[in-house]
Amino acid sequence: xxxxxxxxxxxxxxxxxxxxxxxxxxxxxxxxxxxxxxxxxxxxxxxxxxxxxxxxxxxxxxxxxxxxxxxxxxxxxxxxxxxxxxxxxxxxxxxxxxxxxxxxxxxxxxxxxxxxxxxxxxxxxxxxxxxxxxxxxxxxxxxxxxxxxxxxxxxxxxxxxxxxxxxxxxxxxxxxxxxxxxxxxxxxxxxxxxxxxxxxxxxxxxxxxxxxxxxxxxxxxxxxxxxxxxxxxxxxxxxxxxxxxxxxxxxxxxxxxxxxxxxxxxxxxxxxxxxxxxxxxxxxxxxxxxxxxxxxxxxxxxxxxxxxxxxxxxxxxxxxxxxxxxxxxxxxxxxxxxxxxxxxxxxxxxxxxxxxxxxxxxxxxxxxxxxxxxxxxxxxxxxxxxxxxxxxxxxxxxxxxxxxxxxxxxxxxxxxxxxxxxxxxxxxxxxxxxx
Length: 435
What we know:
Distance between the termini: 49 Å
CATH superfamily of the largest domain: Dihydrodipicolinate Reductase, domain 2
Number of domains: 3
Strand content: 25-35%
CATH architecture of the largest domain: 2-Layer Sandwich
CATH class of the largest domain: Alpha Beta
Largest sheet: 11 strands, mixed
Oligomer: single chain
């Protein structure tokens, strides 16, 4: 069988990893795919640097459109990142009848619906295992391995940068700014870490996971996104004393009223496996009605873990390229005509438990006032701590609530913060038991 010819857009960390693994494991990959997979064309900005890296094994160009318009290229691998020109290149490749492999979670979260429709109309495949959780095969697991299940919920640590920062804050007692600086020095965080620490990167990935888990369209604009900038070391310490750890969690859940899609710091019981995922590692916990809970753990980023997912997609396409398009695995796991229209719930309608920290005057009646207001909104307390502060006239009150609706809690907090004995704004972090 003739080799599959691949055009590679971008030769950065993941692109170089993909090239090197294909060369190193060429025979093993060919045995799995049934034919050889060869990178025959690479588009890069710096052709001299690329030549030093890959030699004269393939054609190097500085115009990506030469790749997507080349009639000899079977699969285009887009590893450039960003929205443009990646979006235009993907559509051009599809229009030219080429399959596309991408690690671009932002592109898919924002424009995946259009891209998959174009690919379906043209009878080509778009594969994107590398877009979520690096080397962890979570897309394939949801789309194929768990196909007999009705997925109830998925919760994941899917951003290694924030997990490293939170691990350092917990293990070393660092404040957020110091832990972030350390992450940057070690190469875990970018010079501009906004997408990571503000939860945007995790929300892109959660949007993709939600679409595959529940058979709905990509709806990134409906996701609730909250990052870790405001987290304080004291809350990580208090959570630990209550038997919890704080993680930036991406959660998508099926409910009777709609689909939840949210990313935010979350208290998780320290007895849960996912609560013990440390450093820059990723983990995704899936609850299915047939298998129950299953967890997928591994490296969520890096040259070779992500390249492993890219090459897995290349092998899948090599195996299925000659198959009838109607008999391929659908992009979003469900047949296109059965993609659901369930609404994404606004955050005010979400029901969960909460961690609350109040800094108050140490005087009689404060706790009674707070609990009275919470009771007025049908919010009950599950656990409580009271901690002395450096100022003996003040104290911290820490509470865990039972489940309540977010809009009720917000209304209660507005009243509590008006109490003269409450000093400043309250800290609120959501709690998930993951059972």
